[in-house]
Amino acid sequence: MKKSTVMTEGVIWKEILFFSIPLILGNLFQQLYNTVDSIIVGNYIGSEALAAVGSSSSIINLLIGFCIGASAGAGVVISQFYGAGDKNGLKKAVHTTVAISIAAGVILTVAGIALAPVILRAMGTPAEVFREAVVYLQVYFGGIVFSVIYNMSAGILNAVGNSRRSLVYLMIAAFSNIVLDILFVIVLKMGIVGAALATDISQLLSCVFIILYLVKSKEVYHVNIKEIRFYDNLLSKIIRIGLPTGIQNIVISFSNVIVQSSVNSFGAVAMAGFAAYIKIDGFNILPVLSFGMAAATFTGQNVGAGKYDRVKKGMYVSVGMGVVYTILTGILLLTFAPQVIGVFTKNPDVVGYGVYIMRFFCPFYWLLGILQVLSGTIRGAGKTLETMLVFLFSLCILRVAWIWGALAIEHKLDWVMTAYPVSWLVGAVLILLYAWKGNWMPGRRKKDAAMPLSS
Fold first, then answer.
1. What's the pLDDT score for residue 450?
2. Among 1, 93, 97, 188, which is least packed by CB within 10 angstroms?
3. What are 309-320's pLDDT values in tens digits?
4. What mean pLDDT comes out for the span 205-210?
5. Cα angle, residue 60 at apex, residues 57 and 65 outer, rounded to 5°
6. Where does residue 152 rank: exposed (0-12), middle (13-18), buried (19+ CB within 10 A)?
7. How far, in Å, CA of 158 to CA of 377, rounded?
8. For 161-165, 233-237, 394-398, 401-405, which range has the lowest pLDDT when averaged over its residues?
9. Model confidence at 263: pLDDT above 90
10. Three-state SS for 11?
């Protein structure tokens, strides 16, 4: 197994594609965590339990979104040090990233358990699913620290081009999650608690495996437990780059909480249909996010090496891959819509809602492909504030304003779902305009053309 990939040399499309494939597979396996929960819960506990799991998803994304975004800042810093060949800077950045993940994981665990009932109540979660949603969310957050540490550790490996290793650990965790779901929910009849507990244990496994690998590794990104701390200059650099992306993720997740609240107003059946499709939506969006992550790593390494023309070519290749993928998957999902939703539940009303919602998403995923991949490229150059503003306006402010305004005129689910393609369109146009202008490209900024790094 090749331990790392230097993406400053070689055929661009091959470098990006082969780096993306493990990321795509890894993200898809990670999506299996909650998807398997939903399938087993929907079929063996009931549609109300499925609605409870679905209503919890947006909150989970809200609270961990900030940390995942912050890890993007770490990835940019690490990839630039790696591309520049700065071993000392890379070493400090790696240990600072691990320290951030531990601190953030502990904070999220406490906050998630304490605030779960308050947030669910504020979202207008129906009484018939409220208790189960609280229980699922609190048990889930009991193990969220493992998920945060794993994801930020995987970000370290991705930044140095080693996307295969984390895939192996995710596969182990995903399959263990399936086995534990069957054991806890179907065999031991532990209900929704069993589903959440299975996810916690699976996340623990992936966390332990990846930390052991980083500790035992002889590579330049090796982790020494005694050296895990916040290195002041790198902590501020990671926060400066990662904070905008963290804010971006948390406000987008907040907008999704608003969407979930709006869906809740249409009753438990609509909630279950929306919850079922959102799981499928994850399988489509996560590969797009993977292309964006690959673009960020590619850009970061080449910026560190000063190869700015290669950055531009990589941007075109990455966007092309994202658009082609989303068009193909959109067609497939629309073709087999009833069968896909039917995996989660046999309730015909829930299936009907899921298929109905799918028609608002699938024809427009290519817009999201443009938005996510271009923002990944620009983020890899260290320009995270600008991408945050695009996401903040299009996927949060515009989406929420659209929903509130439309529902004030007419209480129809159509208006809630239309907010997604409209926000994607506006975001894609804005990011295209910014990318075309080119001021984010280091080679075009005289004052930082060389983009020097300091360890």
1. 39
2. 1
3. 898 899 999 999
4. 93
5. 120
6. buried
7. 15
8. 233-237
9. no
10. coil
Q: Find the largest Cα–Cα distance for the chain.
A: 65
SS (H, E, C) 364-402: HHHHHHHHHHHHHHHHHCCCHHHHHHHHHHHHHHHHHHH
Q: Which two tokens stand for residue 311?
A: 């950055």
CA distance 420 to 271: 17
- In the block, tokens 């069968």 appear at 339
Contacts of 346 (CB under 8 A, 6+ apart): 43
Q: Report the pLDDT value the prediction gives residue 146, as an integer from 0 to 100.
A: 92
d(CA 441, CA 438): 6
Is residue 326 within 8 A of residue 284, CB to CB? The reply is: yes
Q: Is pLDDT of 285 > 70?
A: yes
The torsion angles phi and psi of 340, rounded to 5 degrees, stand at -65, -50
Q: What is the pLDDT of residue 180?
A: 92
Contacts of 107 (CB under 8 A, 6+ apart): none
Report how far residue 267's alpha carbon sits from residue 159's, in angstroms, rounded to the nearest whole number: 43
Name the strand (E) or helix (H) holding 135.
helix 127-141
Angle, vertex CA 348, rays to CA 343 and CA 351, nearest 5: 50
Q: Are 130 and 122 in contact (CB under 8 A)?
A: no
Task: Tell me 10's DSSP state.
Answer: S
Grouping H, G, I as helix, E, B as strand and the rest as coil, residue 84 is helix
Structure tokens, 191: 């209900």
Residues 25-84 have pLDDT tens digits of: 877 776 666 677 777 887 888 777 777 777 777 677 666 666 667 677 788 889 888 888
Work out the number of other CB atoms within 10 angstroms of the CB of residue 188: 10
Tokens matching residue 73: 């800042």
Structure tokens at 11: 């055929």
C-alpha 189: how far from its chain's center? 31
pLDDT at 2: 46
Give, to the nearest 10 degrees, the angle between helix 232-264 and helix 268-304.
Answer: 160
Mean pLDDT of the chain: 84
